[in-house]
Amino acid sequence: ERVAVKIQRPGIRKRFVEDLDTLMTLSEKAEKHSETARQLSLHSIIEELRYILLQELNYHKEAQNLIVLKENLKGFKHLFVPGIIPSYCSQRVLTMEFVDGQKVTSLSPFQLENVPKKELVDDFIKGYLKQIIVDGFAHADPHPGNIHITKDHKLALMDLGMVARFNNDMQEAILKLM
Fold first, then answer.
1. What is the pTM of this model?
2. 141 flagged as catalytic
3. Which of 135, 141, 152, 159 is the catalytic position?
4. What's the mean pLDDT in 25-48?
């Protein structure tokens, strides 16, 4: 079976922590000496960044996120979330189904000619609405590198290291806004 394997570089967690510690120190100093840094709550932003980035280094968590999103979006004909191969996953190795496709932004107009664009866009929008409003669990990093169009004309959502969670109050507020 063809698979994709994501392997964490040795020592990367230590380097991330060191760099984030440096940013934390700089943000504390910036808030002491800059009204703008205090108004922006720079230190809080760096703390949130630290939390997010360290979460992305846990491939067990990413594997679980892939499982949840795959289940949540199973009813969408034009959306695909790669399944994981659990026996070949660890905290630093993630093995999943291979996605045979290309980044959405790298396809030429000629390549897009036979793609059911309306159906893809409809499923993508409805899929995100379901993720946010119904499931309270959404792919939080949907840039072109993480969304590919497969050979069988589906949108593949990949890299679930970063997800957003919405509690009932947030979901209700979003519905009211809509």
1. 0.82
2. yes
3. 141
4. 87
